Sequence to fold (316 residues):
Amino acid sequence: MTIAFFALSGLDLLNSLDRIEKEKESIIKWIYSLQILPNDTGSNICQCGFRGSSTNTGKNSQKTENKLKLDSGHIAMTYTAVASLLILGDDLSGVNKSAILTALRNLQQEDGSFCCVPEGSENDMRFVYCAACICYMLNDWSGMNVEKAVQFVQKSQSYEGGIGQGPGLEAHGGSTFCAVAALSLMNKLKTSFSEKKLKQLQRWCVCRQQSGFQGRPNKPTDTCYSFWVGATLKLIDTYHLINSEFNRGFLMETQGSITGGFSKWPDHTPDALHAYLGLGGLSLLGEEGVLPMHAALNISQRASNHLHSLHSKWKN
Fold:
């Protein structure tokens, strides 16, 4: 599901969804087939959401009772599934919002963080972000305790100024984005950091630029951080301090001359994640031919506009 999201959102940023117009309905149907719905008794409610693939099902899970104990929805797959449906112009009428929100509440831990599956897993900032995206897209914050999530983010800011995967952990570009974007979606960004803490965060992010951006000090530049750190800088109103020419130059060096796409580093093989996040980095730069992004949701502004039109309809 995640790889499908990279592909769909990448096509959207390139304003090229018309290339898959004939397949659009079948893709929407496939995404919905990954949704785990409540059974007649509701005993599987905490497993509801979207799974990552049809590997464990074979047939449409919405038509047959799920009998596999470990076949549960995954918080990241639920985020990317709903986002992908929005990108494709779906109205989300097939999404069982109440079941997803119930399952989401079950994933939140006492410290405010989230696990990714109900059977238990690591719990960190990645899944706080996914939870915030899901609640924002479904326009219902009953799926999480917002105050606990905010406190988890605050406790995870390191002495360096960046934010780690959890309290006491090393600051990282990816987890910093997840934390800041989650706060933005929760409408808590302006109240969660003191002036001193915000300046430390801004400084840490700006200092991640070498030519492109690195994820941590003393690490090589990497295509994906042009989005992770770049989007964070957008959200905290500091993007104007970067050297756009150097950033764009690095991204172009990582583009595959034969296959297209972007790789992690120059002269390496492009992959789906870096191909998509490379486009995200170019979108933040305002590159001609690349649509603008909603930085916090990590989708195009066009898809975000569609989402907000749905929110208006739901209210009415």
